[in-house]
Amino acid sequence: MARTDADADEAPLLSEEPLRPGACSRELELREFRDRYVIRSLDGGAAFAVSRSVGSISPLSPEEAAAGSDCKVSRIYGVAGIIRLLAGSYVLVITSRKDAGSYQGSPVYHVNSMKFLCCNEAIKHLTSQEKRDEAYFMSLLRIAETTCGLYYSYDRDLTLNLQRASKLAAGRIHKPLWKQADPRFVWNKNLLEELIEAKLDEFIIPLIQGSFQSAQFTLKDRPVRITLFSRRCNRRLGTRMWRRGANLEGATANFVETEQLVEYEGHTSSFTQVRGSIPLLWEQIVDLSYKPRLSIIEHEETPKVVQRHFYDLLQRYGETVVIDLTDKRGDEGDLSNAFAAEMGRIHGVRYVHFDFHHVCRGGNFDNLQVLYNQIEEAIQKQGYFLMNSKGEILLEQSGVVRSNCIDCLDRTNVTQSFLARKSLDSQLQRMGALSSSESISISDNNNDVFKKLWVEHGDELSLEYAGSYALKGDLVRYGRQTLPGLIKDGMSALSRYYLNNFHDGVRQDALDLISGYYTVSQGSSSPFQAGGFESASYLPVASAIIVGGITATTFTLSQVGRNAQHFISSIVCAGLTVGVIVLVKANGKQFCSRPRLCGLI
């Protein structure tokens, strides 16, 4: 079980292990005075103060940091950044963490909780409208505090996959972590600017949003460790319905790089895949429908958008194979056909369409072999990265598979796990853990470990983008759909519906604020001037009734097997819930939670 460091009284006050070159302080002390916050390192003595009135930063000597006793003292585990709003600055600190495992010998931590320290005494000088705006911005910061799936290391750059990191100059490890990092995968990139300007390198921690899962099993009486590490791109960060497709620069929503590492007998291997929304200009606006209509935006820049996206992939990963898992009918079919037409103009990229729902209907996961047969030669040619215990590179991955469905969650995760298992067999065969005819599936226990990693990985990525657990987890875990899995998928689908319609607009505002897509400044337009906000006052009532109806329906359905009365009750509860949804929908789209800072970008 992972150890949580928050409130750990038995933890030593000073770290015994010296900091590596370029590393960040592992444990910090927060001292809260009436006029300032003081943050000092318990590793090396560096410190700085932040004024609670204006948010100015002042580096401190160890003696200055230790001075004064009239303060509240607590332990924190990192400074995630600073954001400036109308009334002053807000400092984001990590208040608790847990061990997530290790990456290339360095500990990796999961952020358990964060808190913004307020340096906003100037709020008393704001106008009434500005105070209202500031209150809304502060509510968005509270949402940001609960961001899930954040990981970091104090002495290892986690933004680069193993192949990229191994090919860079050895001297880079002596640079501060933020200078080593790939800015695409730094979740708090926008929040670090003031710390960088103040030259507080020892306190600057790049956070990666994604998934980090690790497990171990045995082959030939020797341990095999598998690590699954996903990194979400920050260039088009957002929620499921409010960030679709690409922007004009070619960055796509829900773009994730997933690296599967295997360690065995001193050898380390890495297989990298990517996923991302269909790189066209398109949207899907919530309107209380279960599946809102997809709309392709006609724009003269569309061909260049697609070119920019794939040029970037070719430069970073090499030869690219695109797997489009969308349906061939309905709105998805229209989007898929438009994507295929654009891909016909892109040179050096292979496009493969695979109608997942049609070919794998009935929950038959094994039918993905049909897809693999089409791309097997290309995947084997791309290969994987492999190095020995001396750090010598034996093999390199020469390309990447890019998978997408509509959300790039459920169908995509099932498909990526299938390709990852094929690669894992090849990696273990090359390392000598398996013979050329053997597969990891020969051992049910080992196969279950692998499947569990991918199920948990899919759930975590889905929570970050859609707010619910992934669907089709059964296909990864068992290769088929089960009744408990269907029930779980049903609950996740209902959860997505509720969050997408009633919460994600505000969540999108929080992401836009944190990521810098929306910048707060004196004189900027108020988020309340866009109109329609007052209709949001109905949201708590409508959403409470819908959630209550869903909960009651779920409970009574679970009791159906006992008697007919429970079945009738479930029908009534479901009918009332649907009735409320129809009533709210009839009164317009304004009942949905909508972003008011940037909207669709």
β-strand amount: 15-25%
Based on DSSP secondary structure assignment, what is the total number of beta strands? 20
The value of Rg in angstroms is: 25 Å
Mean pLDDT, to the nearest integer, reads: 85
Number of helices: 16
- Helix/strand-derived category reads alpha+beta
Query: In percent, how helical is the residue content?
Result: 25-40%
What separation lies between the terminal Cα atoms?
Answer: 41 Å
State the shape: globular
Q: Which runs of at least 5 residues are low in confidence (pLDDT < 50)?
A: 6-17, 531-538
Main beta-sheet annotation: 13 strands, mixed
Organism: Urochloa decumbens
InterPro entries: SAC_dom
Pfam family, one: Syja_N
Protein name: SAC domain-containing protein
Outline the structure in words.
The protein contains 16 helices and 20 strands. Helix 2 (128-145) packs across helix 14 and helix 10 (410-431) packs antiparallel against helix 11. Helices cover 35% and strands 22% of the residues. The chain is globular and about 70 Å long. Strands 6, 7, 8, 9, 10, 11, 12, 13, 16, 17, 18, 19 and 20 form a 13-stranded mixed β-sheet that branches. Strands 4-3-2-1-5 form a five-stranded antiparallel β-sheet. A two-stranded antiparallel ribbon has the order 14-15. It has 601 residues and is an alpha+beta fold. It starts with 27 loop residues before the first strand and ends in a 15-residue tail after the last helix. The model is unreliable at 6-17 and 531-538 (pLDDT under 50). The chain has helices spanning 62-66, 128-145, 162-166, 177-180, 193-197, 302-317, 330-343, 356-359, 368-382, 410-431, 444-465, 473-477, 483-502, 504-515, 539-558, 564-586; strands at 28-32, 36-41, 47-51, 57-60, 72-76, 79-84, 89-103, 106-119, 150-152, 208-219, 222-232, 256-264, 267-275, 282-283, 295-296, 319-324, 349-353, 385-387, 393-395, 399-404. A hairpin with a 5-residue loop joins strand 18 and strand 19 (393-395).
